[in-house]
Each structure stands twice: as C-alpha cells, then as structure tokens.
Design brief:
By secondary structure, the chain is mainly α. Helices cover about 70% and strands about 5% of the residues. The strands form two sheets. Strands 1-2 form a two-stranded antiparallel ribbon. A two-stranded antiparallel sheet has the order 3-4. Strand 3 and strand 4 form a beta hairpin. Helix 3 packs antiparallel against helix 4 and helix 3 runs antiparallel to helix 6. The longest helix has about 40 residues.
C-alpha cells in the first residue's frame, strides 16, 4: 500500500524523502510498527532541453545571417544627390560621435558594477534553495552574466543606429521613384527589421548559451528550476546599458527637437525640418541616438527580462508540480522557443508590408495632387499576418510543450492565455490609431 503514496512523496521535491504511515491507521500497520518507505527521486532528463537549446541557438544564428544579408541589400540601394549625402554625412558623423562618447562611459561604469555584483553575492546569506556551489562561484557567474548582457545590449543599440543612419538617405532617395511610396516603405520597414530581428536573436542566443553552460556543469550542482536564477545577471547588464542609452539619447533628442522648433518655427518662421535651420541636423542626430540606439538597447532589455522572468516562474512552478509535470524543462524552454518562432512569423508579416504599385498614368489625382496611400494600412496588414501566424504557433507549441500526461487538458488553457495576449496587442494598435490619428474624431475635436 505504501506504493500508493509514492507519487505524493515524489511531488514534495527531488532528492531523498520518505513516507511514514501513522500507527493509528490499522490498515497500513506492519508488524505493529509504523510503515516507513524511503526513496531517492530520479534525476530529470535534460536531453530534450539540450535539443531545445541547440534549436534556439541555430535559429538565432540563421537570423543573424539573415540580418547581415538584409543589410547588404539595403546598402546596395542608391544614396541620392550630393546635397543629400552632405546632410546625411553631418548627421551620421555627429550620431557616431555621440554614440562613441556615451558608450565609452557606459563601459567604464559596467566593469565596477560587475565587481560590485560579485561582492553582493559573496556577502549575502545562502538560502536552502540556492544551488550547491560556493558564494564566490555564484558571484562570478552573475558578474559574467552582467557583462555579457551589457555587451549584447550595446551591440543591439549600435546596430540599430548604424543601419538607421545609412538607410535614411536611401529611403529618401527611393521616395523619388514613380512607385516611391512602395519602394521607400519597403526599404524603411526592412531596415527597421534588421534591428528588431537582431535584438530578439541576441537575447535568445545569449540566454541559451548561458543556460547550456550551466546545465553542462552537471545535475549535481543545479536543479532545473535553479538555472534561470543564475542568469538574472544577464538581464541586469541589459537594463544597465538601456538605462543610460535611453536616458542619454532621449535627453539629447528631446532637447534638440525642442531647440529646433523654437529657433526654426517660432523665431525663424521656418517649416518643419527646413535645412535653413541648423538645429534640424541636431534634431535628426537625436532621433538616431535616442530613438534608434537607445530604443534598441531598451527593447533588448525588455525582451531579456521577460524571457528570464518567465523561465524562473515556469521552472519554479513546474518543479513544485512534480510528478504531475515529470520534466520541467519544456516549461522552462517555452519562452525561448516562442521567441524564435515569433521571428519567423514577423518575417512573413514584413514581407506582406507593401503598397500598391502603379504607373504614372494610373496614379489617382485629387485636386491636382497625387493621392498618397496610407502607410498605416500597409503596416497593420503586415502585423495582422504576423498575429494570425503567431496564434497558430502558440496553439501548436502549447500542445507540444505544455501538455503533461496527467492533465491532458492543461495545454489549451495555456494556449487561451497566449491568444488573449496576442490579440490584445493587436487591438491596442487600432485603439492607439483611433486616439492619435488625425482622421478620427478625438484628434479632430482637439484640433
């Protein structure tokens, strides 16, 4: 009869445990003494997790190669007239100068911060849930994670700005064509996709690399749910860089924007972005260092923190739910897998972003002016394609990874939660458009 209680004891936790049946229960008394059953829980099989990690890293490498090829195709496009190149050179030179100074000081501060994290973990009290490693080793791991996360965050910001300052002039030149709307829209969305794909790929690749290294150290040191806790330094480093990149770049771009408007519009009576206003160059420099470099680092930090936080939560809950969940690794790996699948869905959606190509005679005229297409319609169409694909991917992945044998209906509960999140984000697009687009009543009423 003691075997009937084995599953219950197994659910208490991994390691050595026992069940003792009280003597007051006459059905389970053996020779007049309490029945005691001792056992050692079987280790969790990590083979499947290794395949998951290799799959994530492989997809990230393919994504990085795709970003490289996409950047090459962007750089092959014409750069425009000598006057356009002169303005672009001023913008790119100033943006690179600001970036170099800012990130050099961020690097100076990152190293002492990593050392500080090491001593924080060295001096903290160890808890019963900590892995079986010394405090110095744990501090060194967190410090290394911090520096790796900071480096990847800086790379994300740099690539976002580097592509931006080279794509801007090519997008402007593409707008001069007969199908300038479609050409410039596609070039702009693809240049932005380079930064977006790179951010997701670097985040997932870095976390997968750290997870694989820690898992390779052996099950004798770490339980599955403990590994994500040792990767939190990666998120700390990403947040550290994003904080200064977003603040520094954001302060610069807002100050330059306000200065350009005051000098140009109010004092000089000049139109928006009139090149007779020298402050316009500073304004456009700020857009690159704040909205591109700063935003790239900020998105990297957000994605990394979400991934690590979801892995910690999944590992903790799945481990506490044993034996209902026999192997917690699929739950821990789920955030990374859904990220890289999202890259595929986003890539297909970006292909769907295009305008209607027309000949010069076919362009509809309204009051003597060519009627422009609304770029937001094209963007929402591409986003809609991505949302539909992501919905099916969420359902399939929940069925495959979040489907414990003892609770076969659990997967579709997880899938419903994911679908609600996906379509809520899609709804927010239209809510935002309604309250910010000049075509709708709220903005027209204020104007």
């Amino acid at each position: 009869k003691a075997s009937a209680y084995l599953q219950l004891a197994y659910g208490i936790g991994a390691g050595h445990a026992y069940i003792e049946v009280a003597a007051s229960d006459p059905k389970y008394v053996l020779a007049g003494k309490p029945a005691r059953v001792e056992f050692t829980a079987a280790p969790v099989d990590s083979g499947m997790a290794t395949w998951y990690l290799w799959g994530v890293m492989g997809m990230c490498v393919v994504t990085l190669i795709g970003c490289f090829l996409l950047t090459g195709s962007i750089l092959k496009r014409p750069v425009g007239s000598a006057e356009m190149q002169e303005v672009n050179k001023a913008i790119s030179t100033a943006a690179a100068g600001f970036f170099n100074v800012q990130y050099r000081w961020i690097a100076y501060m990152s190293i002492p911060m990593a050392v500080l994290l090491y001593f924080v973990y060295l001096l903290r009290e160890q808890s019963a849930t900590d892995p079986k490693i010394s405090k110095s080793v744990m501090g060194a791991l967190i410090g290394f994670d911090f520096l790796l996360g900071a480096t990847c965050s800086a790379i994300s910001g740099f690539v976002g700005m580097w592509v931006s300052i080279r794509a801007n002039i090519r997008v402007a030149q593409a707008a001069h064509n007969i199908n300038g709307f479609d050409d410039s829209l596609q070039l702009a969305i693809r240049s932005g996709a380079v930064a977006g794909f790179l951010v997701v790929a670097l985040s997932a690749c870095g976390i997968s690399f750290l997870f694989m290294v820690l898992m390779g150290m052996g099950a004798s040191y770490f339980q599955p749910q403990q590994i994500p806790m040792l990767i939190v330094g990666y998120g700390f480093g990403a947040s550290f860089v994003a904080l200064f990149a977003q603040l520094g770049g954001g302060i610069y771009t807002k100050a330059a924007d306000v200065g350009a408007d005051i000098v140009g519009k109010i004092e000089g009576r000049l139109a928006e972005d009139d090149l007779r206003n020298p402050a316009v160059v500073a304004d456009l420099v700020g857009d690159n260092v704040g909205d591109c470099a700063g935003r790239g680092a900020d998105l990297f930090e957000s994605i990394s923190a979400e991934n690590i936080g979801a892995m910690i939560l999944a590992g903790t809950l799945a481990s506490q739910a044993r034996p209902i969940i026999e192997n917690p690794y699929p739950f821990i790996m789920f955030p990374l897998i859904i990220r890289v699948i999202g890259i595929i869905c986003s890539f297909i959606g970006i292909i769907g972003v295009h305008g209607k190509r027309q000949t010069e005679e076919e362009l509809p005229l309204v009051q003597g002016q060519a009627k422009a297409q609304d770029p937001m319609d094209c963007l929402t169409r591409g986003y809609g394609i991505t949302v539909v694909l992501a919905t099916f991917a969420m359902i399939a992945l929940c069925w495959y990874m979040l489907n414990p044998a003892l609770f076969p209906a659990a997967w579709w509960h997880f899938a419903i939660c994911g679908i609600i999140g996906i379509w809520t984000s899609y709804a927010f697009v239209f809510i935002t458009i309604y309250y910010t687009d000049f075509k709708y009543e709220p903005v027209r009423r204020i104007a």
